[in-house]
Specification:
This protein is of the alpha+beta class and 431 residues long. The chain has four helices and 21 strands. A nine-stranded antiparallel beta sheet has the order 2-3-4-7-16-9-10-11-12, with no helix packed on it. Strands 1, 5, 6, 8, 13, 14, 15 and 19 form an eight-stranded antiparallel beta sheet that branches. It is globular, with a radius of gyration of 25 Å.
């Protein structure tokens, strides 16, 4: 009996040792990737018109299309900026979104001191995922991560632009009067003339459902209009961590998943929304069902990637740029049918050769059209020795450890304690 007990004790100890090694969740997969850059194949349309469409490079058909608000069609909101120089994901160009009060005043009937906050119109442009995009109904029930490479405008105005979304889930939950998910700017201080310059803005993370919400304004770090920055928001299914330029800023509990999935509403770039009821005197824009537009983003964006699962900073675009040897053509909008189980039938046109820059040739991936994504042949080129080693989208980034290992460890620990107690009782009985 003593030998059996000793064997059980030893086995329990061994199990507990292995159990506390984190068990990784399923590897994260790329859902959408947009390079908002002036490169052939990355977009279709004319930047001087309202028909820009940025291609989802993953081939999933989640293209971004241009939307205007107010008198935005009269303004040259979209132009090309110089490229990003932050981290390893450098680019030769980026989309500049000049949604500033300075520009809007030319077409908006402002009264003295009036802005979108105090009752004026908001005029400008933003981007949203095309109707019927698969991402619009994605629940992200295994966690998520969002990579953004962004630069702020020196003409950001605290009244006109505060609480503007950078990347958000369209729609407003009435009970919370907020979008269900938003990576945004909040307010900032010391903007005497409404011009950023040396002034700094705070970052905001918003995530809510019908019962409660997390609305975090992170004032422990400041980002000004002084250059490019990389933002990573990663959820491992337990909590969400916000990273700036590869460094952890804050970990936020609750709401690890995106519980609000209204397929008729899109994801969008460069806009902040509120529910219109009770705010009639604060903005003259249309009170749309998906939320009244009140804030537009002013700055430049080079790249956005969304993953269905968590990633660590070392697997983000800050360290591992991703390029494509071939890219899909533009997707076509598709009406959502609630009787269908998926919206992935959204089609794309023929594949186009992707542009290659010196930075992007570090690694490549063959990407087929959305209709063939389940059977696509992912290819990976050898990394060129940059730090850290480069990957492609097909190489799905490793997710953070889940809580499975912890649970197993607790169970094993209980077994160990029980075995020790049994061993002690047996020894006492022998005596």
């Amino acid at each position: 009996m003593k030998k059996i007990t000793a064997a059980v004790l030893m086995a329990s100890i061994i199990i507990s040792c292995f159990a506390f090694i984190p068990a990784h969740a399923e590897e994260a997969k790329a859902v959408a990737h947009w390079k908002l850059q002036n490169e052939q194949g990355y977009f279709v349309g004319d930047i001087e018109k309202d028909n820009l469409q940025f291609i989802d490079l993953t081939g999933n058909g989640n293209d971004l299309v241009t939307r205007t608000v107010g008198n935005g069609s009269q303004l040259d909101i979209f132009t090309w900026d110089t490229g990003a120089d932050k981290g390893e994901s450098k680019s030769a160009s980026a989309l500049k979104m000049d949604n500033t009060k300075v520009l809007a005043e030319a077409v908006d009937p402002y009264n003295e001191g009036e802005t979108s906050w105090t009752g004026g119109y908001t005029s400008g442009k933003y981007l949203e995922t095309i109707k019927g995009s698969p991402i619009n109904s994605n629940e992200f029930d295994e966690g998520f991560s969002v990579d953004i490479i962004v630069k702020l405008s020196p003409e950001l105005d605290n009244d006109y632009n505060r609480y503007c979304g950078i990347f958000s889930r369209q729609g407003v939950i009435e009970e919370q009067n907020e979008p269900p998910f938003s990576i945004a700017l909040s307010e900032w201080t010391d903007d005497a003339n409404g011009v950023m310059g040396e002034n700094k803005t705070w970052l905001q993370y918003l995530h809510c459902n019908y019962a409660s919400k997390v609305n975090v304004e992170m004032n422990e770090i400041t980002i000004g209009a002084d250059g490019w920055h990389h933002i990573l928001v990663s959820s491992d299914g337990i909590s969400t961590t916000y990273y700036i330029d590869g460094e952890a800023l804050r970990t936020i509990g609750d709401f690890p998943y995106l519980e609000y999935t209204e397929p008729d509403y899109s994801w969008e770039v460069g806009v902040g929304r509120k529910w219109g009821a009770g705010h009639e005197n604060e903005c003259k824009n249309e009170d749309a069902p998906e939320g009244m537009i009140r804030r537009l983003f002013a700055g430049s964006i080079s790249e956005i990637r969304v993953m269905d699962g968590p990633i660590e900073p070392e697997d983000s675009l800050y360290y591992k740029p991703v390029s494509y040897s071939t890219i899909p053509g533009p997707a076509t909008a598709k009406e959502y049918n609630p009787d269908e189980t998926t919206t992935e039938e959204l089609t794309t046109e023929e594949v186009t050769d992707a542009p290659q820059t010196d930075e992007e040739t570090k690694n490549t991936e063959a990407v087929t059209t959305a209709a063939d994504t389940e059977d696509k042949d992912e290819t990976t080129a050898k990394a060129d020795g940059t730090k850290p080693e480069a990957t492609t989208e097909g190489e799905k980034s490793q997710g953070k450890g889940s809580n499975t290992g912890v649970i197993i460890g607790i169970i094993a620990g209980v077994v160990v304690v029980a075995a020790i107690i049994s061993f002690i009782l047996i020894k006492k009985k022998k005596k």
